[in-house]
């Protein structure tokens, strides 16, 4: 099961690894946009934007749909949930570290 989770997360992490794709996600989080509209937001070719959108779609982070002659893209917030859940496995690590820091500060203050 653990291996299957890692495999399914790989496309999402690949998509999120690129800063341009993260910016595109932020842009699509505001509203659904056509390829032309997304391209107008970035200083790159239409083909380059299309490649980024394809990778985001493969990662499950956006939905793409045809409307007439245009392809519209929108954020798929549910696609981020597996990433969020995986990152949440590290919450206990930080909770423990912060508790240790709190204890150390309180101990130091008690010594004064």
UniProtKB/TrEMBL annotation:
Residues 1-95 form the HTH arsR-type domain. One of its GO terms (molecular function) is DNA-binding transcription factor activity. InterPro entries: ArsR-like_HTH (IPR011991), HTH_ArsR_DNA-bd_dom (IPR001845), WH-like_DNA-bd_sf (IPR036388), WH_DNA-bd_sf (IPR036390). It comes from the Bacteria. This is Metalloregulator ArsR/SmtB family transcription factor. Pfam families: HTH_20.
